[in-house]
Amino acid sequence: MSLLRVESVSKRFGGITANQDVSFEVGAGKIVGLIGPNGAGKTTMFNCIAGYAPPTTGEIWMNDIKVSGMSPEQCARAGIGRTFQVARTFTSMTALENVMVGAFLINKNVADARQSAAKLLSFVNLGQFKDKPAGSMTISEQRRLAVARALAVRPRLLLMDEVMAGLNPTEVKETVDVVLKIREEGISCLIVEHVLEGIMPIADAIVVLDYGKKIAEGSPEQVSNDPKVIAAYLGDE
Ligand code: ATP
User: Fold this and answer.
1) How far apart are CA 74 and CA 13, in angstroms?
2) How much distance in Å is there from the Cα of 17 to the middle of ligand 1?
3) Confidence class of residue 213 from pLDDT cuts 50, 70 and 90?
4) 86 ligand 1 Cβ < 6 A
5) Carries keyword DNA-binding (predicted)?
């Protein structure tokens, strides 16, 4: 069953078409990778889904709720969580306080927010950083911290923007393990990623954008053998 439905979404900025007539779905409890060369329109699609930049045309649905046109807060209430390409951690606050920022939106009570934030830190394997300033953590740890903060709002769909970029193979594996745990919790993940060796082995489906258009969709194997995808990645113009 589909949780998220993106229906014929186009997004234009003046004369630039960042997304053109893009449709795809994310099933409940599935991991979907959104890939494509630089400038293909992946982050713009995230911004459309999460309410940061409404589609110019087309519609986006979470189950029976039309989220296109809603504010980021309303999208969050509809179950859409997200991380950003540049992890927006509060560097002078502790890891626990960073996650509590998200938890406060759900738990009004400080003790409950603290407890739920502590559980989430352990969930992303950062329990040992509870009382450390976020600024003292590695980029990889800060990305997982941002994931914990997004999870604190209890999304049904988590949008992750390049959480594996620039990480070493051990860090990619740690991140992949967390993504798999998120799916085990029944939360769907839509992941923008350039690190194909991270996303391909775990994705239930891959959607490929190029110049704003969807050029392929299917299993990781189907997509990686698709001549259009190979041409897009090799810069065959
Ligand atoms: P990358 O992999 O490099 O992060 P991307 O696939 O996420 O790229 P987008 O950032 O969505 O691509 O950009 C798609 C196109 O839309 C680009 O040509 C970009 O310059 C343009 N674009 C994105 N946001 C804006 C904006 N706010 N105003 C004008 N143009 C924009």
Assistant:
1) 23
2) 9
3) very high
4) no
5) no
Does residue 41 line the site of ligand 1, with CB under 6 A? yes
HSE, CB side, 13 Å, CA atoms: give it for residue 196. 13
State ipTM. 0.96
* Phi and psi torsions of 168, nearest 5°: -80, 170
Ligand 1 atom with minimal separation from the 19 CA: 14
Q: What is the pTM of this model?
A: 0.93
Q: Work out the angle between the directed axes of helices 95-103 and 110-123 (0-180°, nearest 10).
A: 120
Q: Residue 87 has what pLDDT? A: 66
Ligand 1 binding pocket includes 18 (Cβ within 6 Å): yes
Conformational region of residue 162, where left means phi above 0, alpha means psi within -120 to 50, and beta covers everything else:
left
Contact between residue 36 and residue 30 where contact means Cβ atoms under 8 Å apart: no
The protein residue with its alpha carbon nearest to ligand 1, atom 20, reads: 39
